[in-house]
Fold:
Amino acid sequence: MASAKPKQRGSSRRALPDGPEEVGAGAGSRGWEYRPARRPGSQKKTIPSPHPSLDDSLEGDLQNFLIDESQLHTYDDLTKVNPVTTTTVLKCLQARYCARVFYTHAGCTLVALNPFQPIPQLYSPDVMKEYHSAARPQEFKPHIFIVAEQAYRNVQGQVEPVNQSLVVSGESGAGKTWTSRCLMKYYATVAASRSSQKAQDTVERIERRVLDSNPIMEAFGNACTLRNHNSSRFGKYIQLQLNRSQQLVGASVQTYLLEKTRVACQAPGERNFHIFYQMMKGATQEERQEWKMPAAGQFLWLPNADRTLEEDCFEETRAAMLHLGVHKEVQGQIFQVLAALLQLGNVQFSYPPDESQPCELQEQSKDFLQNAACLLRVPAEELLSCLRVRTIRAGRQQHTVMKPCSQTECSMRRDCLAKVIYAHIFDWIVAFINQSICADSSSWCNFIGLLDVYGFECFHQNNLEQLCINYANEKLQQHFVAHYLKAQQEEYAAEGLEWSFISYQDNQSGLDLIEGPPPSVFSLLNEECRLNRPSDAKQFETRLEKALSGKACVSWDKLSDTPHFTVSHYAGQVSYQIEGMVEKNKDLVPPELVLVLRRSQDALLHSLFSENNQEQSDSKGHSKVITVVSKFKGSLESLMRVLHSTTPHYTRCIKPNTDCRPLTFKKEEVITQLEACGIVETINISAAGFPVRIPYPSFVKRYGLITLSKISSVSNGSGSEDERDTLGSAVRHVLRFVTPGQPLDPFDPSEGRLRSTQVHCGKTKVFLTHAMLERLEIERGRALACRAYSIQRCWRRYCHRKRERQRRAATLIQAGVRSWLTRREILKWQTAATVIQRAWRTWRAVMEALADAELDDAVDIEEVTISLPGSPIPVTRPAQFPQGQPVVVQNWPIGLALASFAATSVAVTSSGFQKLVSLMACLQLSFRRIDYKVETNQFDQGVASIRAHPRQSVKFHLQRSPLLYADICPEQKADGISGFNQILLEKT
Structure:
């Protein structure tokens, strides 16, 4: 992406093409490259105008136009122009258009000039992301993305009111549909989820569905007119639903006044809805046979079929329908019904020979009628009957009378059938789209609305449709006037600002003429429909002229043979034909037609007309008529209530020429649009006023945290004067903290007007410019960051102290546990030592007793029996050793000890471990462990008997004791024999 800095242009002076009526791209234009740039400064100096003015009466304004015309195209905000007049504004727009710059700020609105050619680099995803990530997108070149980003940031910042509306207005062909499409793509790009992959996939699926709804709505609701190749023949208000994280979670579409008469009637040079041409050019050979639409087929309701437009893209429409969930079977049903409408358009009737008989069906129309009945899946005879014969119910008994229709009535009933079918299909598609993309009410909290309505229209022949369309534009213009021009100035005066009121064009009188209290055009139309009598155009014209003679915005042409009336709209005068207006306002559908469609074997038609669509009748039998203008007025009023509850952002689309030629600027046509939409007045009020107005409580609640004092809770909700004074002081304290040393009084007595300041404190509100609002937001962000940093520091300190306390507590607990375990182990050792000592003393006493008994010289002792403690096996020995015979010594360990003598035989009488040890000693088997070893001198030389050496010490060593705690040794001797393992028998 190119840098965001402005491109340096040469300072050479060049004259703007002022003489010709139209200026093309080659007239003084330069190669244009998109590059978001900051606003350049202006070089002001007095220069004479070298060319005649558009209007000689404005020559003085051009003389006072203190701007270097060579730098005129660099002015991206018309509030910088001085003086602000229609001519100076036109000159600036013309210079920018020649330099291929198509967006210009006009104060609180954005002016968009239609280039009539695709410029993909202007709306690329990289450009979207750059405007979205910019800290101050207002400093970039004017773009529709700035308006979109401002609305998105208002939702993020919770600026009251939070919900936003983007109103795209302008004449037919000015580029409203394309602008709305770019806005939807922008929000689908910037409002994507970046958290988890699952959430991102969900949001991307919703975004894809929201974007896919666009080609479907354009295919079924747009058509090529004399003024626009892709003109919206209905109005739509799209609500993009956002959750608390400002992520796109769904959308809903609300439509207004579909021009269904276009199905059966197209003006010369215009076309039917796009979908019919898409089917005709994009269907396969099998589909053509199924829909009975041959490639060479001619249909009366498909004029200019040989003309190919960019919108004739059938595959794109089908793919979008498939992504939204309209399966191929349902698509086939829809296209089959639409093909039946084309067949129905070729059904023609002729006068009957007898007026009492129904009209005759022309010979060439029989096949078309049969095809239409086959595609609609209704009996052909029944379809023909409902087209030629109408049912009349009269009397209190509701008698039914069948009456043949005239040729005109037959054609009207045929057209009515086609219109009602197409209208129901369109409504079904809108309902299906809403069902597919609309989110649950609990999953979203705010929305951004995109309003794309038909532009102001004026044709050679204008009827009820154009009246409703221009009435909608009048309402939108009145909303703009009331919100930006009237309300702001009145609010300035009420809040105590020194303000000189700027005059503007108020179209309230035009609205009173159309919709106001009786008498008005709508009220007279509805009254004429309620009379339920054959309409007479001349008679209704007389009635209108008589009732509306005191209105200033209506005029009559006495010399015209065609009954009509002329209304002076804000955008110009439009003449409306009265012929057929009352019938269109009734919009009644004959019950026979509905009954035929209800009996259709087609599942789609059966579902569309399953409910009773006829008007309800009261007990007296009079029909309750709900007219077209009544329904349209009600839906438009609901739309205006939504707009009034949101923050609106206006984009004025300007059509540079009526021929839709690329980069062609016709000044006469542009200046008419500038005067009609009040651009000059908007610029003057925006230049001198404050576009942002915030009540004191909301301001203190949001920006009170900028200061260190606790002023965010000064409001107690009483609304008293003391509270207002307290709030005012708090607001001024915040503003002085943000703008130290700057005065808050915007009135300059020397100039007698508002000084170009950024802030003013009124009685109950704070008036700010966008620059001051951005500065406040920056300071608030810094204050939040500072407080967040303080909170983080306190939290980290708390967590650190908590961890230290936990560590100390854990250390104390561990020390206590270790101490307890040590004490318990020492107690075990003491107990074990006591047991070992007791057992050892007992053992030693026994051993000494045995030694004494064996070494005793007494001969009178025949047998010595020693009972070991805890051992049930007695130890016996004979009183004396017989000479030369073996002595039998029983039990262990004495037997083991005496087994080393050659003349001694051992009888092992013990069991278990003792027996095993004795046996291994006798067999001279070694033990596994090296430190436990029993050796005998059975076959070695040495002492053969204890008695052989009575005067010497005899030691028996047992290296391992069978006692439980024998391994615990308090000391280690040099010879390696442990104290508790030593068995020492000494006898001298």
Remarks:
- The longest helix spans residues 770-855.
